[in-house]
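Q: Structure for this?
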Amino acid sequence: MTASVPAQLVAFVGEYLLVLGLSPLLLAVLGRVKARTQGRVGPPLLQPYRDLWKLIGKDAVYSKSASWVTRYAPAISFAALLATVPLIPWFVLPSPLGTFGDLIVLVGLLALSRFITALAATDAGSTFGGMGSTREMWMGALAEPVFLLVIFAFGSPAGSTQAGAIAARGVSLGIAYASPPLLLAIVAYVLLLLVETGRLPIDNSATHLELTMVHEAMVLEYSGRDLALLEWGRGFKLAIMIGLLIALAAPWGISTSWTLALVSLAVGIVVIKLLGAHVLVSRLEAGVAKWRLFRVADLTTLAVVFAFGSLALTYVVGGGA
Amino acid sequence: MNLRELLLLVSLAGLSAATVLGFASRRPVEVRASFLLGALSCAITTVQSVLVLLGGTLPASSLGLPGTVPASPVLALGIQEDPLSAFFLLVVSVSGSAILLASVGYAERYVPQRRGFLAGGCGLFVLTMVLVCTAGTIFLFLVAWEAMTLVSYFLVIHDHEDAESREAGLVYLVMSHAATGAILVSFLLLATATGSTTWEGIAAGAGGLPPGVRDAVFLAALVGFGTKAAMVPFHSWLPDAHPAAPSNVSALMSGVMIKLGIFGLLRVVLGLLGGGPSWWAYTILALGGVSALAGVLYAIVQHNLKRLLAFHSIENIGIILLGVGAGLLFQNLGYPALAALALAAALLHTWNHALFKSLLFLGAGAAVGETGTRDLERMGGLIRRMPGVALGFFVGAMAISALPPFNGFVSEWLLFQSFFAAFSTGSVTAEMTLSILAAVLALTSGLAAYCFVKAFGIAFLARPRSQQAELAGSPPSSLVGGMGILAAFCLALGVAPVLALDLATRPLRELTGAAVGSGVSLSVLSNLPNGSGGSLPLAPGAVALLLGAGLLVAWAVWRIRGAPATVVGPMWDCGLDAPTPRMEYTATGYAQPVVRIFEEFYRPIERSDSAPALRPPWIVLARVRRYTVEIAEPIRAWVFPPVASGIFGLARRMSRLQSGRIHAYLAYIFVTLVGLLLLVRAVGGPAP
C-alpha cells in the first residue's frame, strides 16, 4: 500500500524527530543502567539534553594551526549521519522517501562521517588527535568488510540490499523469518556494532586517559557548539546502528499499513525496542573491560567468520534457498 | 566525410602541431602555446568521442591515408572508432585536456631549454594514446603502442640527472618491451589463425578457433596488457616510474596510460574472443583482488607522496579488474544483463580513476614542486600555502576513498551491486567467490580512506614539518585551474552519474549483447538504471540533496542560540610546554597499526638503538634514540632476482655468437634465411 505524499512527508520528518530527539535519552538510559549495574546512581535521564543545550550556547574555540577542515568537519559529519536516517525502516513500510539508497550507501555515509572527523583530528597538529585519527580509521577499515558481508548475509534471502526490503520480508514471514543463518548474521552484526560505534570493549567513552582514547582523542580540540554536533552525532549513530539491527533482526511490529493507529502503535513498539536494545548494550558494556587495541582485529575477524558462515549456511549447506 | 571524422582529423592534426611546436619551441610563449593547443585538441576529441558514443561507429579504414592500397592489409593504415574506442578516447581526452592545461604553469619550474622537450613529449604522448584507442588494425595498434611506450620512457627520464630516474626508466622500458612481446604473440596467434589483421576480421573468425589457441591468446594478452595496466605481479615498474617522472607526466601515465592496458584486455578478451571459459574470469578476479589489496597495503606504508599515489593506481586497476572478471563470469554463466552491470562498473571506475588520479597527481605535483621534497614527513600545513590545491586534493582524496557524493563511490557501489547479484545466479562457486571479493573490496576501500586521511592530513594539515614546507610558494594558476576542471568532473559524476553510465554502457551493447542503459532517465533524483529496464537502489542526486539538507540542519543547530564569538587560541597541549611540529603524528606513526596487524604481509625490519649524546648549551648527557622501520616489497624480492639472473645467464651464453667478424654475421643471416625458407616450405606457406 502506498501512502499519499503528505503522509510520507510527515512520516519522514517523524523519523528524524524520533532519532534526533530520542538519541540523547537513549544515551542517558545506557549510562544509567551501566551505573546501576556497577553500584552507582548515575546521572539523571535529562542530563544529556542539558549538556547539549549548554554546549550549543558556548562560543567556538579553534587552534591557531587549524584550517577550514576543523571548522566544517562537525557539520559535515552530522549531515552524513543525518542522511542515513531514511535508509532504515523505523516504524512504517515501505520506508518513506527511503528508496534513494541502500545499506551500502549507509556504509558510505558512515565512512564519510568518519573520514572528515579523522581528518579534522589531524588538523590542529596535536599528537593525541593524530593518535585518535589513525586508530579510528584503522578500526573503520577493519569494520568495512564485516559490514558488507553482513549486508550480503541479511540481504541475499530477500534479494535486495535495501533495509526496507529485508524488513518487509521479515514482517511477512513472521516467526519463520528466524533461522540459523539469521542468528549467525545477528552475532556478526552485534560485533560490528561494538566496533563501529566505539563501545566497550573497543573504546571507552568515559576514559580520562588520553593514551587509551580513540574517539575522545579525535575530538579533544573541539569545544562548544562544534562539540555539541559531534556528541549528538555520536549518540544518534548508536541509535542508527541499533535501529538497523532491530529492522534487520527483529522487524516484527513495523507497520505495513499507513493507518494512523497502526503507525502510532509501531512508533511505540520501536521506542520500546530501542530502549530494550540500549539496555542490553549497556549490560554488555558493564561486564567487560576495555581490550587492547590490537585485539579489535581478532573481533572483526571473528565477525567476518560469522557473517561468511551465515552465507555459507544459506547457500552451500542449504543449496541456495 | 562527416562531422565525427572531421573532428577526429582536426584533433589528430592539432596534437601533431602541438608536438612539433613543443619540440621546435625556442621561447616560453611557444611552449605555452603548445600545451594550450594540446589541451584544446583534447577537448575537441572529447566532443568527438561523445558524438561517436551517442551516434555510432566510424567505419574501418574510412580515414585510410590517401594513396594507400586497401587490399593490402599492411598498408591499410585504418583508423577505426567503435564505441569501446570512443569510450576510452573520452577517458583519455578529458584527463588529457586538464593535465595539459595544468602543464602550462607546471612546466615553468624547468629551465626554458627543457620545457620544449616536455611540451613536445606530452603532446606526442597524448597523440599516441589517441592512436592506440582508434587503431583499427593490429599494425597501427602495435606501432602506436610502441610509440606510446617509447615517448613515455623519455618523459620518465626527463629529470635524467637523477640516477633514480634513469634506473626507473630502464625498468619501465624492459618490462614494457617484454609486455609488448606478449601482446605481439597474442596478436600474431589471432592474425595467423583467422587470416585477418583488422578487429572486425579477427572477431569474425575468432569464434571458431580451437580452445588451446584461445587460451594462449588470452594468457598472452593478460600478461601483456596486465603489465601496462600494472596488475600484480607485473606491476614493479609503476611505483618507480611514476615518482621519477615530472608530475604532469605521472598524471598522464597513472591517470590515463595504464587504462589503455584495460582497453587492450577488453578489446582482446571481449571484443575479439567474445568471452571465454570460467577459469579466465576466475583468473582475472583473483589477480584483481590481489592487486587491489596489495596495492593499498603498500600505499599505506609509503612516505613518498607520489609513490603512495602510484601504489593506489595498482589498487584501482585491481578494482577495475574485479569488474572485468565479474563481467566475464556472468557472461559465462549466461547472464548478459549482469555481465553488463559488472562491466559498466568497471568502465565507469576506469573513467573515475582517470579523473581523480590525475587530480591527485597534479596536487602532488604542486606540493612536491613548491616544497622541493616528496617526503610526507617534510610537508605539513600546505593548506595555508596553497588553498586551491589543497581543496582539489581533498576532493580527489574523498573520491578515491569511495565516499559519497563523489564519483568513486558510485562505481564501487555498482561493483558491490554486481557482486550481490551473484546470489540470483544459483552458482554456489560464483556466490561464494564474489562474496569473499566483496569483503576484499570493502577492506580495500576502507584502507584507501585510511591512507588518504594520512596523506592529506600529514601533507596539507597541521603545522609545517620542515622549513621547505613553511616557505612553500604558491603554485601557478593554470595548475589550480586544471585541478578545478578535474574536481568538477569528480563531483558531477558523483552527483549525476546517469549520463556517464549511459556513455559507459554504449560499448557493452556490442560486447555483451545486453540491452543495457535503455530508458535512462535524465533526472538527477531518479535511481540508476539496471540491466533489465528496472532500477538499482541508488539515486546519487538525492544522496547529495540529503547531505545538503543535513548541512542546513547542522547550521541551524549551530546558530540556534545566536552567532558565536569565534576564539582562536593555542592548541590544547595536555600540560606540555609549546609542542613543536616534531611532536605531530608522523606518516610512519600513522601507518603503524596497519603494519602491526599485517606483519606477515609486510615483514617489517625494525631497528632501534640509542646512543649517548652531548647536547649544548647545557652539556647534559642525553641519550638519542633512533627508530627506523624498513619495509621491503616481497613480491619484488622473490620475482626479480631469479628473472634477472636468468636473463643475464642466457645473454652470456648467447654472447658466444658475437664474434665481431663480419663474415660470421653474414653466415648467420644466410643460415637463418635458408632455415626460414625451408620452414615455410614445410608448413605450406601463404598461397602465391
